[in-house]
Amino acid sequence: MKDHEGDLKQYILTSETYYHWARDKGEVDEVMFGFYSPEGGTSGEMAVRWHQLENGKPPVPRLECFNDGWHALYQFQNVLAAMAEVDREDITPYEFCALLEHCGFIDKTERVNPNKIDPEMTLQSAVEELHSMADSLEIDVPSDAGYVERVRAIADFLASIEWIERR
Q1: Per-residue model confidence as pLDDT tens digits over 99-108
Q2: Are 19 and 81 found together in one domain?
Q3: Percentage of residues of the chain with pLDDT beyond 70
Q4: How far apart are CA 59 and CA 75, in angstroms?
Q5: Is residue 59 part of a domain?
Q6: Which of 50, 110, 118, 148 is found 20 to 30 A from 26 (Cα to Cα)?
Q7: What is residue 102's predicted lDDT score, i.e. its pLDDT?
Q8: In sequence order, which residues have a C-beta less than 8 Å from that of residue 29 and are 6 or more positions away?
Q9: Number of domains present in the structure of the chain
Q10: How far is CA 141 from CA 30, 69, 117, 121, 154, in A?
Q11: Looking at the structure, do residues 65 and 103 belong to the same domain, yes or no?
């Protein structure tokens, strides 16, 4: 038997994460849920994925669970009972998240990139933040005057990419 002690019942609405989510063909959205360790990792995880069928109707949810998550799935009897209450209804990912919260799950969705530099930062504070990140990763960063200009050029480039992605 698996031990989920100390792990938290959480979910991730992947379409709202700051990182890119690669979908399979026909897959519209996904909610991952399971037991997650506060230190990282999971002792059991599964997903409900919404698939667009070729019938012109709204996307339909499908529960998917690899065999290393079956024990965790068995622990979620209240989730299965709540899912049975909405059997054959085309619930949305947001409605499924609400169902999970009603069953005691916590939203673990990372919507903000913790490593992204705030656009309101001054150039100097951005350089300091980059130095701090580099120190934590044990990377040598030059401190010469040309470095600031290189950082400015990189920041301008990244800002232009974000502008293009928003269009």
Answers
A1: 999 999 999 9
A2: yes
A3: 68
A4: 27
A5: yes
A6: 110
A7: 98
A8: 13, 14, 15, 49, 50, 59, 93
A9: 2
A10: 39, 43, 17, 19, 15
A11: yes
What's the pTM? 0.68
Q: How far apart are CA 38 and CA 14, in angstroms?
A: 19
Residue identified by tokens 């700051």 is: 18
* Mean pLDDT calculated for residue range 25-48: 91
Closest to 45 (Cα-Cα) out of 89, 15, 14, 85:
14
DSSP per position, the chain: ----TT-EEEEEEGGGSSS--PPPTTEEEEEEEEEE-TTS-EEEEEEEEEE--TTSSPPEEEEE--GGGHHHHHH-HHHHHHHHHTTT----HHHHHHHHHHTT-EE----S-TTPPPTTS-HHHHHHHHHHHHHHTT-----SHHHHHHHHHHHHHHHHHHHHHH-
The encoded tokens of residue 53 equal 């069928």
25 and 64 both lie in a single domain: yes
Residues 6 or more apart whose CB falls under 8 angstroms from that of 86 comprise 95, 99
Single-letter code of the amino acid located at 27:
E
Question: Which tokens belong to 92?
Answer: 């949305």
pLDDT greater than 70 at residue 62? yes
- Residue 11, class by beta-carbon neighbours within 10 Å (0-12 exposed, 13-18 middle, 19+ buried)? buried
